[in-house]
Amino acid sequence: MPETTTTTPYAAALLRIAQGLMFLAHGAILKLGTFGLAGTMGFFGSIGYPPVLGAVVIAAEILGGLALIAGFATRWVSLALVPVLLGATLQHAGNGWLFNVAGGGWEFPAFWTVTLLVQAGIGAGAWALDGRRATPRPVAVAA
C-alpha cells in the first residue's frame, strides 16, 4: 500500500481538527468573549449587514468548530462555513493582501476558504464520527 494512502486519513484529521480549533477561537474567544454578542452584532450593522448576522456567524463558528473537531458531517460543515470565510475575505479585501496591515488583509480568510474546500473534498479522515458506520455490519451466522 502506498504511503500516501496510509497517511492521508491522519493528514485530513489534522486539518479538520486545526480548522475546528480556529473556528472555536474566532467564534467563542474573539467574537463572543472579546467583543461580546452586542459588540459583534453592532460591528456587522456598522459595515452594512443585518446585525443579527453577527449572532449567526458566532453560532456557525462555534457549532461548526465543534462539528469539525468531532468529525461530524465534515464535508457539509466545511461547505456550510465557506460563506462565513468568503464574507470575511470580502470584509478584509480593501485592506490589502497581507493580514498584518491595519484592519487585516484578505490572504488569511482566503486561504482558510481554500482549506475548507480541501476538507470538503477529502472528507473527515481519522478519528471522526463520520467514520462510524450508520448500520451494523452483517454478521455471519453458522448453519
TrEMBL record:
A Pfam family annotated for this UniProt entry: DoxX
Family classification: Belongs to the DoxX family.
Keywords of the record: Cell membrane, Membrane, Transmembrane, Transmembrane helix
InterPro entries per UniProt: DoxX, DoxX-like_oxidoreductase
Any Gene Ontology CC annotation: plasma membrane
Bilayer topology annotation: Multi-pass membrane protein
Transmembrane segments: 21-46, 52-72, 79-98, 110-129
Domain of life: Bacteria
Record protein name field: Putative oxidoreductase
Subcellular location per the Swiss-Prot or TrEMBL entry: Cell membrane
Broad class of where this protein is predominantly found: membrane
